[in-house]
Amino acid sequence: MTSSTKKIGVLGAGQLGRMLALSGAPLKKMFSFYGQSNQEPAAQLGHPFFSSQDANGLADLIDFADVITYESENTDVALIREIAKTTPVYPAEKSLYTAQHRGREKALFDQLDIPCAPYQIVDSLDSLKVAVEEVGLPAVLKTTTEGYDGKGQFVLKEARQIEQAWSEIGGRELVLEGFVNFQRELSIIAVRNANNEHVYYPLVQNVHHDGILRYTIAPARNLTEAIQKEAEAYMQRLLDELDHVGVLTLELFDTLDGLIANEMAPRVHNSGHWTQDGAETDQFENHVRAISGMPLGDTTACQPIAAMINIIGQVGDTEKVLEMPNVFLHLYDKEERPNRKLGHINIVAETEEGLFDVFKKLASFLPKS
Ligand code: AMP
Questions:
Q1: Which atom of ligand 1 is nearest to the CA of 251?
Q2: How far is the CA of 51 from the centre of ligand 1 (A)?
Q3: For residue range 117-144, what is the model confidence (pLDDT) as tens digits?
Q4: Which residues, at least 6 apart from 176, have a Cβ–Cβ distance to it below 8 Å?
Q5: Ligand 1 mean position to 324 CA, how many Å?
Q6: Which CATH superfamily is domain 118-178 in?
Q7: Which fold has domain 184-365?
C-alpha cells in the first residue's frame, strides 16, 4: 500500500463505516460499502453501494477497492482469507481470528505477559463445574464468540447457580473468567501502519449501563504516565505479534493491583469517538491512514479534557445540544429502537468542573441511575 491508495472498500455499512468515510474524504479517499441495504448509515457516503442481496455485490466491491477493511469483529475469517488472495485486507486475518474468540484472545494475552483474569474454557455442565472449582467464585460466564454489549453473559456468585447459568447461556462453548474487582473500566486505542509506525491515544475511562457503553471521559481522570506507559507496552506487544495494520482497541480493568486486560477489538471503537473533536487526528482518519500506507497522525488530545456521550434508543432534544458551545453532535441516521446506538455527543472542556457542568445540562442523554 502507498499513499496513492485511493479506493477503500468497507465490509459493513453502519456508523463506523460512515465515520471512516467522513474522516477519509479530506485525504482524497473514495469509499464503497458492502451492506444489507442502502438505508444503512454509511450507504449514502460511499459510491457505489454494493448490496449483500446482490449475487455479485461482494465481487464488485473487491473489484472496486484498492484495500479492504471491515467494521465488525464478527466478519467471516474465511471471507477475509479469500479476499486477501487478490486485494489487501487490513487488519489482516490473524487480528480478526484472535479477536473474535475470547479464549484465543486470552491465550494471546498470556503468551505476551499481559495480565488477564484467570479463566477456563468450558463446553459442558460438567466442565463448568470443574472450572468453577479452579477459577473460584464470583466469576463471569461468557460465550466465547459473538458476545457484545454484555449479551451472552452470566455473573455466577454461588455454586447453586451453575445449572441455571448453563441452561441460560450454555449448550455452546463458553469461557468462565474470574470476577475482577475493578476501580473503573479503561480502554486504549493504538494504530499501526505497515511501516511499523505505532501511535497511541491516551487511556480513556468508560462507563457502561446495562452492558452498553454510555459515556467515555478522555483522558481517564487522574491518569498517570506510568499507567499510560503500561497500557502502551501491552498494546505494542499485541500490535507487533499480530503484525496489525489499522486501529486496535484494548479494553482494560483498572484495579488496585494494576491493569487487567478484558478484550480487544481490531477496529475503530466507540470509546474512541471523542477523538473526532478532542484529538489532533481522530481514530477514523488514523485507521484510513494506516490501511492506505500513509504516515500516522498526531494522537495528542487538543483540550485538557473531553467526553463522549452515546445517544441510545431515542434521539432526544438535539436542538439543545446544537446551542451549546464546545459540544458536538454526531447522528448516524438510524431509526429509533430500544438500546440502539443512534449517535453520540462529543464535549471538550478546559476543566473537569466545566465538563461536568455540561454533563448536568445533558442529563437527559445519560442513564438515570
Ligand atoms: P465484555 O463483553 O467482556 O466487555 O463485558 C461487558 C461488561 O461486563 C464489562 O464492560 C464489565 O463491566 C463487565 N465484566 C466483564 N467481564 C468481567 C469480569 N471478569 N469481572 C468483572 N466484570 C466483568
A1: 4
A2: 35
A3: 999 999 999 999 999 999 999 999 999 9
A4: 119, 120, 122, 128, 131, 132, 135, 139, 140, 141, 156
A5: 34
A6: ATP-grasp fold, A domain (3.30.1490.20)
A7: D-amino Acid Aminotransferase; Chain A, domain 1 (3.30.470)
